[in-house]
Amino acid sequence: MIDTVPDKPSTRRLRVYAFDPAASVALDTAVVNDAVIELPWEARWEDPVGLGPANEYFEVIDYDQPCRAFYEPLDPNHPWLLAQDGLAPSEGNPQFHQQMVFAVAMNTVRNFEKALGRTVFWSLPEDDPRVAAKRRGGRTAASYPPFTRCLRIYPHALQEPNAYFSPGKGAVLFGYFKSTPRARGEEGQWVFTCLSQDIVAHETAHAILHGMRRRGIEPVNPDSLAFHEGFADTIALLQHFTMDNVVRHELGRAGGELRCESLLTGLASQLGQATGRNGALRMALETLRHEQASKEHGEAPQIRTLAMLREPHERGQCLVAAIFDTFVTIYERRTADLFQIAGFARGSPDLPEKLVARLAQEAIKTAHSVLQMCVRGLDYLPPAASTFGDYLRAMITADTDLVHEDPLNYRVALAESFRKREVPVLGCMSYAPDSLCWERPDLRQFEAMIGDEGGDDRCWGPDALFADALRNMTFIARLDGEGASGRSAAKPDVRLPDATEQDPISYPGRSTGSGNLRDEAMRVVMRNQRALHDWLLKPAPTTRQHRMWETLLGIRTLPLGPHCDAVLKANGGWSPLSVKAREISLEKWKAMERPPDWDDDGITLRDGKVLLPVFEVHSVRIARRISPDRRELSQMIAQVTQKRRGYFDPARQREVDRAGAPPDEEPDFWFRGGATIIVDLRDGRLERIVRQRIDQEQRLARQRDFLCKDSIARSMAMTGREELNSPAFGFEREPFAFMHGDMP
Amino acid sequence: MKVERVRVRMYKKLLGDCFLIILEGKDGRKDASAHILIDCGVLQGTRGSKDLMMAAVRDIYDTAGEKGLDLVVVTHEHHDHICGFKLADDIFAERKFGDLWMAWTDDPDDPDGRELQEKYGQAYAALAGMAARFGVASAVDDFETEAIMGLAGFSGPFAVPLDDDDAAGGSGDGMLGVSGRRKTVRGSRKIYLDLKSWAEQTRYLSPGDVMETPGAIGLKTYVLGPPRDRDLLSKALPSSGENAETYFALAGEFLDAIEPGGTGPAGGTADEAAICREALHRSPFSARYHWRSFVEQRDARDDGAATRLLHRRYFAGQSDQDNFSCGEPLAHRRIDDAMRSTFSSLSLKMNNNTNNTSLVLAFELPGDGGTMIFAADAQVGNWLSWGKVRFRNPESGKELPVTSEDLLAAARLYKVGHHGSHNATLSEKGLERMIHKDLVAMIPTDEEFAKKQSGTWEMPDPHLNEALTVRTRGRILRGDKPAAEAIAQHQEIAGKASSEAFAKRVADGDLFVEFTVYDRALENADG
After folding, report:
1. B317 in a domain, yes or no?
2. Which one of A302, A549, B90, B375 is at 20 to 30 Å from B503 when CA atoms are compared?
């Protein structure tokens, strides 16, 4: 007998501060500071939210390290709490802190996933013992590290004005502290970083970005760390515009103006005040306000250009300003008609409520679109080192691929605000959106790679360059248990035959019907990584064609050395011995699969060993997106990378390039190269390729130059040096803790 | 009597400051001369530091002759500026010296100074505790250790035993407490106590003071820093708005460890419970939310869902099987060592703040009123404060017309701040104001050693080096390079005649490089 069961609720509602506790003290902001975050109720294929709170993305562990105390974990499913949207906002109740930090982090993830079109994963720390052990011999198809399933959140980890994402711990640590009293006799107030929406969103964004680009925390140019900071701030800022009533309230106060100081445009104001600033920790609009002010005074706008800024934080702010400027520009364009119709001037007080509501709608919609542009751009970044200019190109290209027409000129606005800040874009004719797009690969150039040189009579054109690679891949994560129908179906073998045997870490399957789809998606990614890696190891029909592949991907896969590299030379490349390689015996090499016409004569040996370069397939993700005009875009996005020993001394570099180095010798720094490839899933056509060649000497010189001039970056780059792992440094272990200081 | 010659001797091969200023009267008579020592130190961890310092100090007293040193200036409390006083203490103790000049920040009778010392003392105590816990080498009681790396090398040993006959100072003297029967004190404080006992008198200088150096003959001296403004004192990095106060509030806490290793002052289980009880007082939450201490949770055996959850997630060595990342080792995800990053940032901040307490002096040369700027390790905040300094006539107390800008503009010698690091020479309000055509820079550095120390220090910083080269037209004397390089570089930029005149004023050797800033005879010859 089945009792009547009500439908599952569609959302789980959790109360939070819209900004931070300080906003509840001021009368004019208190009304909007009580907010509710609505998370979609857990689907069948997701873990239920449980004690902690915890689910498959996060586990909140409330260990207050300075006090050596555990605060009791919150049970979000207690009926009394379910009935009242969780605990009411309270600074004094640590369980509310747990609830808020979880809700905001989860909300950030959901917003991100909406824009990204797929599930967010967390990276396993680079220095995880299992990763490190496997890295020693170089990456093979079988040695891809798994993911960190659950990111940890410690809401009370430190008693200091800091909060940071720790890649090593796979955790976000939030600090709290007593602020210095503003006047004598007054008591300092406790400030909790985990109660600031902005700080939580910012740290979550760090973790998400790290999950997508594990190498993003390696400083290789002045933008690499700045990008992490700026991006995280951008996410936190744009997230303000998901809270309908707050947007309405603030727009109403400012007469529909966004180029002014308000709760919407500042970040982490409580922390800002507590650490001795006059207002928000950071203003998105420092620049915009200056511009506005100087415009009003009839002066030429004063914009801080990127070249003027050296510190990662300041440079990061430049990125935030550029993106926020784009957002505001588009918002203004979209609302100009509303003001006109209603007969009000922008900025006038007492706008009618309905007009404000419409303005808020437009602001929210615009913020959503801009956020999507920002997030989608990540997939189109070059594989190793990217600059702000690269990011601009990536955003424009990603947007162009999905949205052919751009009637509201989003892309022009974006390019314009980067141009205003003189963000350099290398290798572009102008800041016109179409010249900013990554060039499409000239497939004719690679026609020779297909054809029947090797006697193979495949007849597909260059459009199908990657069709073979796709054969062994899985495109959708689905729970693969036995069904309940009782009607048997032959199960096609879709897995790689040896995927599981090679797997050094086994993943126990879930019992039928109760699987977790995100776990399955992780397995699919790893399976695809291996499939692509295996496929790239397969020799092409001729050495010449294989070399063409190397040129296309910007990496080396054949034994290193200056021997028989006429094809590389013809393409302006070469095969330096500094590329990270496995040393194998000549016999072993002879027994391996290789192009049939490969010639061992003159092969370069080091201590009698062949140097077989290693490479990594960094992420293979399937993205399905629907464009506004209802076209479906199905793409495989992958990054293939390789690293090469880099040295501060150019003479030593030349020496190692020519003669190699002992395999266990740590170089001064690693130089990475490779390609981001975007392939149409339907036929395997290579849509875009963003390449950074491993043998690009200029880029190597630029990286060396940067590291030589930037001491913090240098110490972060000098990895693996035991003596630098002392806590007196701590850069390597906690890149973000150091970056932040007391400025999360 | 008039000063006829001023020579400045920089001791070489030290990543640290040790400068001897020699003032000569007529005919170079010893009894009509004066000798001033500014700092005496080398970075902790330098190989053979004892021998290096001994050789320098012997030379200093040999040069000074029978009457010894007239003045010792100690700019700030960093090992690389003061450890020589310890390493060669038998010489100093025997020969002693005349006046000792220090910054107001060390004045026991200055209320602001005392407050600052107390805070620094607390912060150092916190650092010492953390250093001991994390096994940072500088916590050891040893001035000559060669295993120190990085920031710790500036602070010197955190705790050395205090001799029974040392005057027991107040809390401001950085007393760390009692270890065993003996009181300990941080190494630099011990040196300060010794210095004061060797000096005939100690004077504490504030910005705006105008002094005459003691001895048979002397130079008028203007005091530029350290600033009295608290904000500027803690402003170390360009464009950072950090608030050091917050860190001081923490100082002295969190020293007790439980896990990992239990290497703190307390070890056993009973003590762990005590540590937890003690630590709980720091909690901002009221007692009803104090659920369980670390020990209680770790040892809890009940079957509650929360207990099981935390056992599985926090205390288990490996995650359990139903987790996706099964078999994942979890210990590294705990936060028992979270103070590590605090330690890093606190030591960095303390280093910068201490550098900012640098005593900065401008000596006025005879003749046309050229100056020598000794910037010690002053960082941005210290530099920024100079513009507001008003100098007073020491007798009448009347304001003098001279400004810091005038003093910089007249600089003929600039002792480059902080071994040439990026944030210790301000360009706009500093170097660019040094416009004297004869400007010479002296950098006490060891570039290779600095790089090796951390991989992080660029000493000198390439940008600064470029700017210095322009300002001095190549006349940059360095502790790690032969003076001939500077002479050659100057010749390349300014021509042969000028470089010959420069070369005449430079005496280079293994132990030191000496530059004659002022020579009445030469001045006239140069016309």
Report:
1. yes
2. B375
Q: Is B362 on the interface with A (CB under 8 A)?
A: no
Instruction: Among B162, B185, B208, give the residue marking a domain's end.
Output: B185
**Cross-chain Cβ contact A68/B297 below 8 Å:** no
For the beta carbon of residue B265, count every other beta carbon within 10 angstroms: 13
The verdict on B19 and B31 lying in the same domain is yes
Query: Are residues B335 and B353 located together in one domain of the fold?
Result: no
On the CB side of A180, CA atoms within 13 Å amount to 13
Contacts 24+ apart (CB under 8 A), B197-202: B198/B92, B198/B93, B198/B96, B198/B97, B198/B100, B199/B72, B199/B96, B199/B97, B199/B98, B199/B99, B199/B100, B200/B96, B200/B97, B200/B98, B200/B99, B201/B98, B201/B99, B201/B100, B202/B99, B202/B100, B202/B101, B202/B102
| Contact B498/A at CB under 8 A | no
Q: Considering only CA atoms, which of A519, A477, A524, A518 is closest in space to residue A499?
A: A524
| pLDDT for the residue numbered A744 | 29
Contact residues on chain A for B347, CB-CB shorter than 8 A: 728
In a domain, B250, yes or no: no
Residues on chain B touching A170 (C-beta within 8 angstroms): 333
Q: Is residue B475 part of a domain?
A: yes
pLDDT band at A284 (very low <50, low <70, confident <90, very high): low
CA A270 – CA A397 distance, rounded (Å):
38
In chain B, the residue whose alpha carbon lies closest to the alpha carbon of A738 is B345
The pLDDT tens digits for A626-639 are 877 788 888 889 99
Kind of pairing, strands B182-185 and B160-161?
A: antiparallel
Domain boundary among B306, B322, B346: B346
> In a 3-state reduction of DSSP, which class is residue A704?
helix
- Domain count within chain B: 3
| Residue extents of the structural domains in chain A | 11-212, 241-436, 443-480+515-697
User: How far does CA B150 lie from the centroid of its chain?
Assistant: 13
Q: Identify whether residues B286 and B388 lie together within a single domain.
A: no
Do B333 and A169 count as a contact with CB atoms less than 8 A apart?
yes
The answer to whether the CB atoms of A129 and B329 lie below 8 A apart is yes
Of B527 and A580, which is predicted with more confidence?
Answer: A580
Check: complex ipTM more than 0.85: no
Residues B226 and B319 in one domain: no
Give the dihedral of Cα atoms A540, A541, A543, A545; nearest 10 deg: -70
Same-domain status, B259 and B289: yes
On whether any CB of chain B is under 8 Å from the CB of A203, the answer is no
Q: Are B380 and B479 contained in the same domain?
A: yes
Do B137 and B152 meet the contact criterion of CB atoms below 8 Å apart?
yes
How far, in Å, CA of A300 to CA of B68, rounded?
64
For A315-352, the pLDDT digits (tens) are 888 888 889 989 999 999 999 999 999 888 888 888 89
Write the CATH number for B418: 3.60.15.10
Domain hosting B507: range is 5-111+186-243+348-526
The answer to whether A269 touches A281, Cβ cutoff 8 Å, is yes
- Per run of 10 residues, the mean pLDDT along chain B (length 527 residues) is 90 88 82 91 80 93 92 90 90 93 91 81 70 54 48 60 48 39 66 92 93 92 87 49 38 49 43 79 87 85 85 71 49 74 67 82 88 88 84 87 92 87 68 89 83 62 83 92 92 92 92 92 65
- B280 and B209 in a common domain: no
DSSP class of A579:
B
How many whole angstroms separate alpha carbon A744 and alpha carbon B362? 40
Query: Is the residue at B311 inside a domain?
Result: yes
Q: Does B152 touch chain A (CB under 8 A)?
A: yes
Q: Which of residues 444-483 of B touch A (CB under 8 A)?
A: 454-458, 462-463
Tokens of A184: 């004598």
Facing B345 at nearest CB: one of A516, A721, A738: A738
